Each structure stands twice: as structure tokens, then as C-alpha cells.
Amino acid sequence: MENDYKYPIKAVSEITGLTVHAIRAWEKRYNAVEPARTDTNRRLYSSRDLEKLTLLKKATEYGHSISGIASLSVEELMKLLGKNHAFDEKAGSVKPQTTSNGETKIQRFVEAMNNYDGKRLEELLHHASVEYSRTKLLENLITPLIITIGDMWHKGEIRVSHEHFASSIIRKFLLNLLETQSIPETAPNIVICTPKGQTHELGALVVANFAANEGWKVTYLGADLPMEDVVSAAEETKSRVICFSIVYPSDDIFLIKEFERLDHICPPDITIIAGGASVGGYKEILKKVGAIIIEDNSGLSDKFKLLRKF
Ligand code: B12
Fold first, then answer.
1. Taking 80 as the threshold, does the pLDDT of residue 100 lie above it?
2. Residue whose CA lies nearest to ligand 1 atom number 39
3. Interval between CA 201 and ligand 1 midpoint (Å)
4. Which CATH homologous superfamily contains domain 189-307?
5. Is the domain covering 86-179 a CATH 1.10.1240.10 domain?
6. pLDDT at 92 over 70
7. Whose CA is nearest to atom 5 of ligand 1?
8. Where does 7-82 sit in CATH, by number?
9. How far, CA to CA in Å, does 127 sit from each of 108, 169, 192?
10. Which of 138, 137, 132, 164 is closest to 150 using CA atoms?
11. Which of 43, 66, 263, 281 is a good FRET partner for 254, with 20 to 30 A between their CA atoms?
């Protein structure tokens, strides 16, 4: 079972949620896993590799650096991750303020969500927005919070009603945050959305806030948009840039067709940017469209700042 080398890199990426690029980088730079090779030199991974990569991903999400943990065994990684309950770990990685009775901010959100206490959730978000800068709020609280809630749903620890309840409050909060950024009239315009078939929306909304924070006038369109509508919105708002968030799935042939259409209908002076966990799956077509592909999500504020100079 342990040496059942049968998973090609694309399947490993699908299952673990890591990009193909990250898997290769973790292998080359840190010897995280040692895949076998087929006769044609393609990588094949074992179940144990899958397990290790999944644990490594989780540990990096909790704030451990890959260089420090890549050499650990599956058992050592499990021990590292198992020290506390899942959301204590996640909260630890973002170093939230610990209250006198030891509760963390994220735990408080989870408690409020479990009680369907919308007022409390809004209150907690409001307090955090006063306490942190916008960048820190997005990076250190909102993103780990969404991931915690989503993961709890994926693991069956909460009902879909809890997840939808909390996600809709976070969505409302992020939309409101976007509207309350003071943007000068002369700011460049950007359209942000997820393309057709991509329903994970919160990443796009977080990215929209990063962009607005760096002085972009954002037209946020939401999720699941056909290309004609995106281009029409960009033309009407005189946007220089269209920004797509691609989270799941990573192999939608209809989305490839959508991008092919974009190639025909998008005016050449509009720059396309694409990012998100599954952007790697569409590289070929995105390159054809001339898109800027952003795979590394660190320092998103700086990236949007830099983009203004283009
Ligand atoms: C929350 C969540 C959900 C929510 C979505 C709520 C919503 N309205 O968006 C719910 C619970 C509904 C959901 C449902 C599903 N999900 Co889900 N979900 C997640 C979860 C936990 C977090 C995603 C998220 O919002 N993260 C927070 C945001 C801020 O992060 P993000 O989207 O990655 O965006 C960041 C970066 O990627 C980047 N970024 C994003 N876009 C862009 C764009 C640009 C230009 C740039 C520069 C950067 C950038 O910036 C952001 C900030 O850092 C992930 C697991 C995870 N740990 O990430 C799974 C995950 C994405 N989901 C997954 C799956 C499979 C599903 C389902 C298909 C499950 C099912 N069996 O039904 C469904 C169906 C969705 C569908 N119809 O397509 C898989 C995808 C697997 C894969 N390899 O592709 C994941 C990875 C979980 C897993 N490990 O299996 N999900």
C-alpha cells in the first residue's frame, strides 16, 4: 500500500489541493517526497506521498514554513498538527489575540456560527476591522477564518447551513469593506470576478479588497460570470484590467472554451490577470490569451501596488 506508486502529478494536485508547481518545488527544493518515474519519465506518487503532501499543505496553512517541516515523516507531521484541535492550530498560525480565558478569535467566530448568532459574528468582524490594518485583517483573520469554516464543512464537522450562514455574513462584511474604501476619482479601474463555472467566490472578494486597498477602483461582479458580461462591464467602466479568480475545478473544459472566447472579444488594451488555487490548470489557454498568471499568493497588496505601475 505504502509503495503503490500510481498517482500522476495532476491527480496529486487535484486530491491535495496543491498546485503542480508547488508539488514540484517542494520535491526539488526540499526533498519533501520522492516519486517514482514511469518509462517516459513522468512522476508517479504513492498513497504515502499523498498523505505527506496533504499534511504538509495543512501545516503550511497553519503557519509552518515548508523548509522547516519538509523532512518530517508522516507520523511527525501528524504529531505536529495534532497538538491542538484544528482551529486552535489555525488560530495559532495567525497569532490572534488570546483572551484571558484562552479563547482565540477564530474560536469565537466558530462558536457564534454554531449558535447561528449573526449579530455576534458581525460584532466580532467589526471589532477585528478596528483592531487590524486592512491588509492584516484580510491576511491574518478573514482568510484563515474562511478556510477554517470551509474545512469544517468539508470534514462534516458543521452543517452546510452553518457554513452558508457564516459565509454570507463574511461576504456581506467584505462587500461593505470594499465599498467603504476611499478611492480617488483618478484611480485606475479594475473588474474582478470568477469566470463561468467557478463558484468559490470569497477568494475573489478578498482579492478585490486587496486591490481597492492599493488604490484600484474595483467593479466587483461576483461569481460565475460569462465572458461577454465581464468584457462589457470592463468596457463600460473603462477598466484597464480584468482580474479572474479560479479556485475549483482546475480542469473544466468549458472554462477553457470561455477563455478562448475571451481571446476573441477582449480589446487588446485590457490586461487580463488570473490567480487562485486552480489557476495552474488553465495556464496554456491563459498564456494564449496573454494573461498575467499569479500563482504565488504572498504579498498580494504589493502585487496590486506594482500592477498600477504597468
Ligand atoms: C470555503 C470553501 C468552500 C465554500 C465556498 C464558499 C464560497 N461562496 O466561496 C463551500 C463550502 C460552499 C465549498 C464548496 C465546495 N468545495 Co470548497 N473549499 C472551501 C475552502 C475551505 C476555502 C476556499 C476559500 O474561500 N478560501 C479563502 C479564500 C480567501 O482563499 P482562496 O479562494 O484560495 O483565495 C486566496 C488565493 O487563492 C488568492 N486568489 C484567489 N483568487 C485570486 C485571483 C488573483 C488574480 C490572485 C492574484 C490571487 C487570487 O488570494 C486569496 C487570498 O489569499 C477550500 C479549502 C482551502 N483550504 O482552501 C475548499 C476547496 C477549494 N473546495 C473544494 C471542493 C472540492 C468543493 C466542492 C466541489 C465540494 C463538494 N463535494 O461539494 C464544493 C462545490 C463548489 C462548487 N460548486 O464548485 C476543494 C477543491 C479541490 C481542488 N483541488 O480543486 C478544496 C480545495 C477543498 C479540498 N481540499 O478538497 N467550498
1. no
2. 276
3. 8
4. Cobalamin-binding domain (3.40.50.280)
5. yes
6. no
7. 200
8. 1.10.1660.10
9. 12, 14, 27
10. 164
11. 43
**CB of residue 213 inside a 6 A radius of ligand 1:** no
116 Cβ neighbours under 8 A, 6+ residues apart: 162, 165
Per-residue pLDDT tens digits for 158-172: 899 999 999 999 999
Whole-prediction pTM value? 0.74
pLDDT band at 89; cut points 50, 70, 90 = very low
Nearest CA to ligand 1 atom 86: 17
> Best mutation site among 53, 94, 149, 154 for ligand 1, i.e. most ligand atoms within 8 A of its Cβ?
154
Amino acid in position 60 = T
Determine whether the shortest distance from the Cβ of 22 to ligand 1 is under 6 A. Answer: no
The residue whose C-alpha atom lies closest to atom 62 belonging to ligand 1 is 248
- Residue 106 above 90 pLDDT? no
Ligand 1 in reach of 214 Cβ (< 6 A): no
